[in-house]
Amino acid sequence: MCNNWHIVRYLSRKLLPAFIFLYSDSFSNRHSVFIVSFFSKMSSVPVKKVPLHLQSSQNRLIIKNGKIVNADGVSDCDIFIEGGVIKEIGRNLIIPGGTRAIDAQGKYIFPGGIDPHTHFKMDFMGTTSADDFYNGTKAAVAGGTTTIIDFVIPEPDQSLIEAYRARRGDADSKVCCDYGLHVVCLNSTDHTKSEMTELTKEQYGVNSFKFFMAYKGALMVSDPDLYVLMEHVRAIGGLAMVHAENGDVIAENEERLLAAGVTGPIGHPLSRQEDVETEAVTRAIMIANQVSCPLYVAHVMCRDAGEAVSRGRSNGNVVFGETLAAGIGSDGTAYTHSCWENAAGHVLGPPIRNEQKALMNFLVQDVFQTTGSDHCVFTKNQKAMGKDNFTLIPNGVNGVEERLALAWQYGVNAGLLDLPRFVQITSTNAAKLFNLYPRKGALAVGSDADIVIWDPKKLQTISASSHHSAGDFNIFEGTQVTGAPQFVLVNGRVCVDDYELKAVEGIGNYVSTSPWASEVYDKVLQREVKLGIKPKSVTSNGAAESVPVPVQVQITEEIQQNSKLVEVDNEPQIGVSSVKKSSIKVANPPGGKSAGGFW
Ligand code: URQ
Ligand code: ZN
Ligand code: ZN
Fold first, then answer.
1. 414 touches 360 (CB < 8 A)
2. How does pLDDT run across 65-122, given as a tens digit for each residue?
3. Distance, CA 581 to ligand 3 centroid (Å)?
4. Cβ distance 441 to 432 under 8 Å?
């Protein structure tokens, strides 16, 4: 049996080419080639459609004469790709005959973009976002993004793992590029914690968990939930993400605005002004700090909230910031637009403010590390659900296709971002934070051949009439950008070919993201050592048993003794002051860290 199997495999490899024949796909009117073989069927290897343009170089490709831009610098080298990965980088490479060559003279070569924040086929606010994983990733590829990270959002009381499986079912056969998943938690029960632990295993590959501080009555979790969930994220080596807006305050504001007759889209930004975002960002950082949990603040949309992130980072908190294509490419004036469709088309949370420059500066200064799109598109018809009540307008906008071009226009063309920083904020930093680096986010030997050849002179005008999303509205309508992808390679396949999109449904892979990303946990551990936070074991439903969990306050014998003294003496409150309190050690002493670690 074993020998026969070897013979079949041998024959498959040697004779397969003889069974290749050309097939014209009359439905799509695109010429395609199907590799059909008796042997491949026998070995039950799925047969994939191989577009004609890949035939001459299905496995091999060389990119010549371009400028390679990585997070750490720019170099003039050629790149040889084989079997979906980068095989060689250098000059005068010796390559096999028949390799397709792409001349990148005058162009930049970047690692494919990584969008850490999309919502494809998301059930939300009584409807489902218009782009499924096919349309969404097709649009991503068209704009130079070759990996997206989307979200698993369970139904109330649904198992996280069940919801995760359903999401994989939605995506696996549809994606035109690689993808990963964050998981949203709606409560902090022992069951949820144990599933979170399970999800970090290789078989699921999830290392990031998102918690909503807004959408009261739907996705929002409480502060005690946040505390417990973040504690658990730290225990399992994950990264906590937050949607930071004060959901209680928003709910009150919405009621009052509606009662006052404000029913149009302008009610949306009025109900959630800058301080509502800034307070939640500050609170999220504070809670994460209690349990030494690394924190990723998603979609920071205003200067004050960015300053809160900046303060957290200066104080040594392990906190990272993301802003959106919408934040750097749009100014929020549309909310007052006389056209309802236009105003409603811009509704997302947190709303777009007039903060483009401030948000870009935070990217420049490394207050923010990533740009996402939060691509969550609803058609005009879907948005019309909130025609008489702004709180019913489904929240979400486009950006997965435009993200790179907007960062280029408002960052590089504006003279604010240098080339390596552009690569960091569009690709490398996300790869590092979500533990995909250097497989993704780098042009290096051994990395996936996810590559963008960027034409810095190509003029494009963004429009719903030419975008690839299934949405019928584009918040960047009419924006002119100088710079566009000329070629995009997804795992070595040419999916944008000389400006022409040739995305292939289902060719993307799920990428497993493992916990304990060094970009995150080197910082967490360093800080814990510096502050003298000694990890201690806690039991949490068995799932995280024996995993060290640090807390801010170390309960020393003296503290315990101190408590006993008060009890034994049974003195009135004033007696507490007489207790010796010279060596209670805390990570955050009253008066700030400069006051010293002891009081
Ligand atoms: O809040 C998010 O991240 C989702 C639900 C998309 N919608 C939005 O308004 N940002
Ligand atoms: Zn959010
Ligand atoms: Zn989102």
1. yes
2. 999 999 999 999 999 999 999 999 999 999 999 999 999 999 999 999 999 999 999 9
3. 47
4. yes
- CB 399 near ligand 1, within 6 Å: no
Nearest CA to ligand 1 atom 9: 348
Provide the CA 467 distance to its chain's centre, in angstroms: 21
The pLDDT of residue 573: 40
C-alpha 44: how far from chain center: 35
Chain centroid to CA 494: 24
Backbone phi and psi for residue 376, each to the nearest 5 degrees, phi listed first: -150, 85
Nearest bound ligand to the CA of residue 298: 2
Which neighbouring-strand residues pair with 279? none
* Ligand 1 neighbour 374 (Cβ under 6 A): yes
Q: d(Cα 470, Cα 376) in Å, to the nearest integer?
A: 11
Measured distance CA(454)–CA(104) in Å, rounded: 9
For the segment 527-548, what is each residue's pLDDT rounded down to a tens digit? 999 998 876 544 444 344 444 4
CA 244 – ligand 2 centroid, Å? 7
Q: How many CB atoms lie within 10 A of CB 156?
A: 8
CA dihedral over 186, 191, 197, 198, signed as positive or negative: negative
The ligand 1 atom nearest the CA atom of 347: 9
Note whether 299 and 381 are within 8 A (CB). Answer: no
The three-class DSSP label of residue 172 is: coil
Burial class (CB in 10 A: 0-12, 13-18, 19+), 65: middle
Ligand nearest to the CA of 348: 1
**Which residues hold their Cβ within 5 A of ligand 3, which is an ion?**
374
Report how far residue 488's alpha carbon sits from residue 496's, in angstroms, rounded to the nearest whole number: 5
Residue 533: what pLDDT?
83
| Residues across the chain | 599
Q: Ligand 1: which of 118, 149, 374, 377 to mutate, judged by most atoms within 8 Å of the beta carbon?
A: 374
Structure tokens belonging to residue 276: 């509502």
Smallest CA separation from ligand 1 atom 1, residue:
349
- Closest atom of ligand 1 to CA, residue 117: 3
The separation between CA 579 and the C-alpha centre of its own chain, rounded to angstroms, equals: 50
Full-model pTM = 0.86
